[in-house]
Amino acid sequence: MQDTSIMKIVPVILSGGTGSRLWPLSRASFPKQLWPLITEKSMFQDTVVRGKGDIFLEPIVICNQDHRFLIAEQLREIGVENARIVLEPVGRNSAPAIATASLLANELDAQTILWVMAADAYIQDVPKLVKLVEETAAFAQNGKIVTFGIQPTRLETGYGYIEKGSVIDKIKNIYAVKAFTEKPDIRQAQLMVETGGYLWNSGMFMFSAQTMLQEMKRYTPTLLSLVKKAVDNRQSDLYFERILYDDFIKVPDLSIDYAIAEKTKAMVVVSADLVWSDIGSWNGLWNVSQKDRSGNVVIGNVFLENTHNSYIRSEEMVAAVNDIDNVVVIVTKDAVLVSDRNKSQNVKKIVQKLNAVKQQEAVWHNQCYRPWGHYETLAHGERFLVKQLIVKTGAQLSLQKHHHRSEHWVIVSGIAEVTRGDEVIFLHENESVYIPLGMVHRLKNAGDIPLIVIEVQSGSYLDESDIVRLDDQYHRIV
Q: What range(s) does the Nucleotidyl transferase domain occupy (predicted)?
């Protein structure tokens, strides 16, 4: 094995999922990895922090283009300023995302070691994980694809499994890979755990850019060719690297397991004794969360009576739960979920039903984030909509107009600079302005504190699609 003392590793964070099994908290507009579910940081931030240290370079983040400003803001909050943020116009699964990261790294150095992690997994002992990465990096440097298998601690049908083959390095617990198994039924899972020859598939991989591209050229040449074209045609967009829709939509939707892991001869697995969870359901989150003496996880304004082994979370209003066991109760500002905790995987079916009837709560939160700040819907009726806008210091909305609505802005706090047609006016607390239908306008925070505005919309069509942007400092294409 080569000396790894001067090797640098690039963390690759895959953040493309929507986490529909954790609805109503996780939705397409604000998925689970961007929420603080276990620590004070979001799961995405916790994942990025794992890859901060002397042996790591700045990360590559592959994310949905709709989340780009949230991703950038969360990186800024944890002091990561030079990450490469790559925007996917449409989700095409893990194989194209990993191909993208490998091609980008290969442009600089084919020997670059990449450590791929999903943004929505929980790992308790991070120093132990980082030590495993250090100890096994030499295998990646020498042409292997290292995957991290987790020693099972219970029967689990929600995870994939890896069957260990022959021992490669007994001291480092590294094995050949005999087979990958998709999520098993309960009987299969019981057999796997009892035999002891199986590991949970964590979805973490480590390899050199050169090795991954060689294996993709061998096993998925069409996918690699299409991704390479998309990467070559990418555009710079502020501090993002944007993949074009017309290129990426042609790429096959394929997981890295199907594309490479189940076929390659270069795969090895390290058996990791770690507390790990992919947080794939409310039950999974309950398993890794701190519980009270009755086995309950309680977050928010919650009151319990004779309730046990449950996960209860309320984002704002009072939630009272009486005389039940093994349930999940989630209360957001616009939706409530009640589920058997052990069957919370089926929440995904609820989301499918909501999507089928175009219920906006399936996708959108009551609170929506934008590069300038965020807004929250307060009231909605026939021909009117009331929102609270919070504009960050120094930020501004796009110069825009509307074809179907007029707007009335009332300043709650801060100083607003308002462009209204040909005039520019400054408004302070308790002052207001009216924006007629069709008038060009812009709102800017001209003060040193967040600008809070109540916006009252009225008109025949009150949707975000009724925005005609004439100028935008954030270069928003979508």
A: 11-293
